[in-house]
Amino acid sequence: MARLSFREQVLRVRQDAIVAAVNRLLADKGFDLMTVDEVAAEVGIAKASLYKHFPSKEALAAAAMVRLLERTLAFIDQQAARQEATPAQRLEAMVRWALTLQLAGEMPTVPSQNSSLRAELMAHQGYLDLLMQVSDRLGAWITEAQAAGDIDATLPAELVLYNIYARACDPVPAVLKAGGRFSDAEVVELVTETCMRGLRPRR
Amino acid sequence: MARLSFREQVLRVRQDAIVAAVNRLLADKGFDLMTVDEVAAEVGIAKASLYKHFPSKEALAAAAMVRLLERTLAFIDQQAARQEATPAQRLEAMVRWALTLQLAGEMPTVPSQNSSLRAELMAHQGYLDLLMQVSDRLGAWITEAQAAGDIDATLPAELVLYNIYARACDPVPAVLKAGGRFSDAEVVELVTETCMRGLRPRR
DNA sequence: GTCTATAGCCAGATAGAC
DNA sequence: GTCTATCTGGCTATAGAC
To answer: What is the average pLDDT score of chain B?
Structure first.
């Protein structure tokens, strides 16, 4: 890794601050309701300065999504290092992690419907590469878990993968939490359990 | 039911056409991306005319949501009439119905996040009444299904209810369908099965 | 690279004739 | 109630001084 000049380090810190702010706002309001003015205000710089770092609002959001995928890969590596854990247990840990992130207000969400952002993401090579990597890693665990009988082998692997991905934007945890009867930890447990149970063999 | 004058009938038909168009657009693009101009274009009248029928964009969406809840109640009645069916089977039929509606592009979705629409819906008495009715009817079946051992009695009834509601905006069916490997009917079966299996007792 | 100020656009809502 | 035309505000993006 090349040594960074002071100037470059400052730039890097500033960019990280921007992406972190975008991450929070995406988690809170979603892409359409997030305004670039808010991002600038949260970072504490002028809007015009933002546009020196990122060419568009879509690019801002894409950077936040790339950061999420990088964090996801890091967590996958962490799970892969737990040699005592079965593939199914690792997948369960992924679900738990996603739900925890979501309840903490740190899970950025992208509109799965039509949007200017969809197009930009599908053209963003770095994003697609990371998404592929994550899918491959999780896909391998799914196959292993099915062979071990911990996940129903008659279910298409796609279905299992998408079911896990979908926990990142599941509305159930937030509604359960809003009900006030459960702690965050309890919500995570309940949702994780119903998710995984839905994927296990019939008996 | 009072006899309607011709004038009132025309009004009624026009309003139904508007709400149907809003329903489609909400299902297709969601509230934020739906524009009032599009609604007007789809109905075939001028935007200003729309505002003679509904005072705001939020009111338009609320009307579509009320219509959805009315259709839901009608389907609940239909299921209640199936005397051979168990409560769990009725709940499963509800899930199947919601998924079918969603895949057909007829399921309007409301942003569960912050939005001007949330506030308006929570102040809309007719909407809240209907929502309560639906929840009560489904809640009764859930309790019965738990007593019968078809749904895990250790799960909070809230969790079960929200899990069923969430199928209406589940992103998994659309993604599975986009993959092209499954027919709509297969998608409905796969998602319904994993949903219900997640709620059944451990063994 | 940072700021202030503003251009340009688009969508929700309204005026007023018919 | 329907239309055409317009207002209004907010948002993305940029110009231009420093």
So the answer is: 96
Name the amino acid, one letter, at B101.
L
Q: Of the candidates B51, B53, B72, which has an alpha carbon nearest to the alpha carbon of residue B11?
A: B53
Q: Taking CB atoms and an 8 Å limit, are B162 and A175 in contact across chains?
A: yes
Per DSSP, the three-state class of A83 is coil
Residue ranges per structural domain of chain B = 6-199
Phi, psi of A9 (to 5 degrees): -65, -45
Which tokens is A71 given?
Answer: 């964090």
A vs B: CB pairs below 8 A: 97
Residue B27 contacts residue B107 (beta carbons within 8 Å): yes
**What is the pTM for the complete model shown?**
0.96
Kindly tell me the burial class for residue B53, based on how many C-beta atoms sit within 10 Å of its own C-beta (0-12, 13-18, 19 or more).
middle
**Cα separations in angstroms, B36 against A71, B20, B30:** 39, 14, 12
Q: CATH number for the A6-199 domain, one of 3.40.350.10, 1.10.357.10, 2.30.42.10, 2.60.40.10? A: 1.10.357.10
Per-residue pLDDT for A1 more than 60? no
**Phi, psi at B148, each rounded to 5°:** -80, -10
A56 CA to C7 C1' in angstroms comes to 17
How far apart are alpha carbons B100 and B82 in whole angstroms?
20
Q: How far is A4 from chain B (nearest CA, A)?
A: 40
Question: Would an 8 Å CB–CB cutoff place A200 in contact with chain B?
Answer: yes
CA pair distance B100, B138, nearest whole angstrom: 18
Question: A150-164, B109-123, B145-159 — which is least confidently predicted?
Answer: B109-123
- For residue B40, the tally of other CB atoms under 10 A from its CB is 18
Cα B161 to Cα B155: distance, rounded to the nearest angstrom: 10
- Determine if strand C comes within 7 Å of the CB of B1: no
**Enclosing H/E stretch for B168:** none
